[in-house]
């Protein structure tokens, strides 16, 4: 069976970049882990927040085109709108970030928001009884490594990262929820280091 490629949306507009400078809005997009439509109430329940606290952010993501409405559902006497992200993966173009100071600033704020979320999630994880820092079902890891790589080693590293991305996207599309599921977050940054080379 041929594996379907994930829907990828490249962030090109400043208004979409600005929308992603909010950790709250990044968390909202992350709530769609099962790939099915959610209402504001569904998203709020997953985030442990009141619906009123996220309603504005959902509407903003809808307005800038990062969420779209996909039907509705009856809830009591009212219809609840259902939303889905426009893609399974969002990426920023490096060249677009270099195009202006405003674009670069918005891009940096979006990345900072992602790492602020990781910091908050890590703080909660180290206080949780379900956290495992080793073994087959390790669910908490924080590390930072610097290394010098040859071109071949660099290419191999990127093959591993691509395999990880492919695996997670496949799970995102095919996973059937079960009681023993673990909800995990993975935040990565691979960056070139300038002027830090050790002279041999």
Summarize the structure.
With 200 residues, this protein is an alpha+beta fold. It is built from seven helices and four strands. Helix content is 44%, strand content 12%.
Number of helices: 7
Proper CATH architecture of the domain at 8-128: Orthogonal Bundle
**Termini distance?**
51 Å
Strand order of the largest sheet: 1-4
Give the biggest beta sheet: 2 strands, parallel
Element order: H for helix, E for strand? EHHHHEEEHHH
Shape: globular
Q: Which CATH class of the domain at 8-128 is shown?
A: Mainly Alpha
Computed Rg: 19 Å
Outline the low-pLDDT stretches: none
CATH homologous superfamily heading of the domain at 8-128: Winged helix-like DNA-binding domain superfamily/Winged helix DNA-binding domain
Strand content: 5-15%
Any idea of the CATH topology of the domain at 8-128? Arc Repressor Mutant, subunit A
**What is the typical, i.e. mean, pLDDT?**
85
Helical amount: 40-55%
User: What is the number of E strands?
Assistant: 4
Oligomer: single chain
State the secondary-structure class: alpha+beta
């Amino acid at each position: 069976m041929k594996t379907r490629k994930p829907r990828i949306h490249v962030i090109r507009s400043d208004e979409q970049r600005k929308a992603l400078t909010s950790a709250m809005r990044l968390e909202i997009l992350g709530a769609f882990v099962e790939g099915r439509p959610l209402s504001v109430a569904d998203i709020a329940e997953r985030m442990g927040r009141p619906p009123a606290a996220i309603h504005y952010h959902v509407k903003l993501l809808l307005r800038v085109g990062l969420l779209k409405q996909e039907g509705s559902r009856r809830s009591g006497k009212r219809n609840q709108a259902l939303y889905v992200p426009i893609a399974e993966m969002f990426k920023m173009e490096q060249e677009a970030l270099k195009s202006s100071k405003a674009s670069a600033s918005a891009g940096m704020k979006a990345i900072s928001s992602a790492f602020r979320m990781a910091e908050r999630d890590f703080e909660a994880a180290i206080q949780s009884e379900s956290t495992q820092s080793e073994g087959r079902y390790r669910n908490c890891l924080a590390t930072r490594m610097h290394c010098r790589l040859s071109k071949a080693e660099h290419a191999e590293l990127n093959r591993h990262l691509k395999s990880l991305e492919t695996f997670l996207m496949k799970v995102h599309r095919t996973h059937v929820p079960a009681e023993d599921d673990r909800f995990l977050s993975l935040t990565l940054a691979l960056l070139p280091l300038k002027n830090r080379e050790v002279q041999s």
